[in-house]
Structures are given as C-alpha cells and as structure tokens.
Amino acid sequence: MEFAKKIVDSTEEIFNTMIFMDISTDGCMSEGQEILFSNVSAMIGLSGNFTAMLSLHCSGYIAMEIAGAMLGMELEEIDADVKDALGEIANMIAGGIKERFASEDIKLELAIPTTVSGKSYSISSPTRSNRVIIPFDLVQGQFFVEMKYSLN
Amino acid sequence: MEYAQPIIDATQEIFSSMIMLDVVPGEPFERGSEPLKNSISGIIGLAGKSKGLLGIHLPNSMALSITTAFLGMEVEEIDEDVRDAIGELANMLAGSIKTALDPKGSEIQLSMPSAIHGEEYSIDCLANAINIAVPFALDGETFLVELQLREES
Do B128 and A88 contact (CB within 8 A), yes or no? Predict the structure, then answer.
C-alpha cells in the first residue's frame, strides 16, 4: 500500500504549496533510530478501510518556525496560533494521504486534528499496530511525520 | 450541553459492565487548554460526516487502579499494559457514544486510539469545535471524559 511514499508525497506537497518551506527526506526511519525529543505533536485520526493515526512531531522551535512560515508572522511562544497551524498542517497532510489512497479505491475519512504539547510526554498506540516514521529536514532542523495503522 | 448525557451514559455503562466500578458524574463544563499533570490520556478520532475526538484524562494513580480492575492484574507503573488499557478504554467509550450520536451507524467511524502520558502536557481543544468535558468521581479522585465535535458545514 506504499504508506511511506504517500506520506512523503503529501507532506512535500503541503510544505511546497501551503507553507513555502523547502523540505527533504531520505525516506523511512531505519531500525533503531528514534524520534528526536518533541514538544509539539499534531495528531489526526483516520478511519475507513483501515484505521490510523497520523502525527507530526517537532521541537517547540521548529513548531514556531513552521507555523511562522505558514502564517507569515514571527511567533515567539507555543501559543494557540502555533497549535492551530500545526493541527491544520496535520489535517492537510492527512487529506493528501486520503486522496492518494482514494485513487487506489481505498476509502478513508478524517477526524479532527488535536495538538499535544508540553515539556515531557510520550504518545503510544496499541501494541498490535504498525507504524511508519519519516524524518524530514528543514534548514532549521528536523520534524517527523508518523503514521500508525491497523489493517483489520 | 446536549452531548453531556451520551458521555455520562457511555461512561457509566462501560465502567459498570467492563471494569465493574461505579462512577459518579459531576457538572459538565468546557475544558480549556490548561495542562494535565502526572496523567495519562486515551484519545481516539471520530471520522466521517460528524468529525471529532473523544478523550479520557486520568491522573496516574487512577489509571493504575482502573487498569488493575480492568485487566484483573496488579499494575504498579504506567507501562505498556496501562497505555494499551487506557487506549482501549477510549475506544470503548467512543464506540458507546457513537451508538448514541449515530444510531444508523453510517456517519461516524472510529480511528485508532492513542495514549498520551507525561508529567505535564496539554491537549488542545479546537477553536471551531464544540467541546464538552464531564468529570467523574471514583474513590475520592476525578477523571475527565471529553468530547470535541465539529458538524460538517
């Protein structure tokens, strides 16, 4: 079902056309690599022919840089604008993934995005689920797009 | 507050039938974005014509006692079993609330649950969604069940 390609294509499209930031990736995170410490995670559920949760994880600094580029303003704290912007980006990436699956006759619907933030937290999905994590590089640093899914 | 009753009904039903615990609902309110401390949250997306998010937020100590009652085995720290149990609890609550909100079963589909745990974290409510949280008391402590919903425009 080529999850990784859909995630990369959709994320690149959103960053190129909506946020105007250059991003690059070497593809899936390899075994043993870990997500860098994150302060902000924007998440959105998907459901249909399979169930999933799409998340974008990054540091507070990267969250402010991405939200600032999208909104065209300087942001100095992780406020409601930053959280809303990151949630909206997760929503748009998930929308792009939904369209790409739809072209293969795999139907998905989106839930609403939510943004988790804080000094220390961890997010886990059911132990029986699968996951794909793609690290993306920006000039300013890294962010991660993760998709956890269950095919039953 | 038309959504308070489905939350109360679902929570009481799941707790009494699956965990064998009676929980007492408090006054429903709109939750802001104040941080949750030393807690674990189970969240799950509602997708489809009505979109939303169902969350249950528990202090660590309650998460441990509820998981112990739910799994019938002693748990002493927030480990994989507890995270899975709290995610599954969100899944069951959402399933029950979905039945009340969408009796025909055609408008809402559940996504995959996640568990969020930490010393201090915020789970933000969306500005353009209805938000309603109901506190429930159990053994002198309180947990929250929260529903965010956005009607398709």
Answer: no
Is A124 within 8 Å of B148 when comparing Cβ atoms? no
How far is the C-alpha of B119 from the C-alpha of A118, rounded, in Å? 9
**Mean per-residue pLDDT over chain A, rounded:** 93
How far is the CA of A92 from the CAs of A11, A20, A85, A89, A96, in angstroms?
9, 14, 10, 5, 6
State the total domains in chain B.
Answer: 1
CATH topology of domain A1-24+38-118: Chemotaxis protein chec (3.40.1550)
Measured between beta carbons, which residues in chain B are less than 8 angstroms from residue A87? 124, 126
- Phi/psi for B88 (5° steps) reads -65, -35
Please tell me the distance in Å from B90's CA to the nearest CA on chain A. 12
Cβ contacts of B147 on chain A, cutoff 8 Å:
none
Domain chopping of chain A, boundaries: 1-24+38-118
ipTM of the complex: 0.90
Residue A36 main-chain phi, psi, to 5 deg: -65, 155
Asked if residue B134 has pLDDT above 90, the reply is yes
Instruction: Note whether B112 contacts A51, CB cutoff 8 Å.
Output: yes
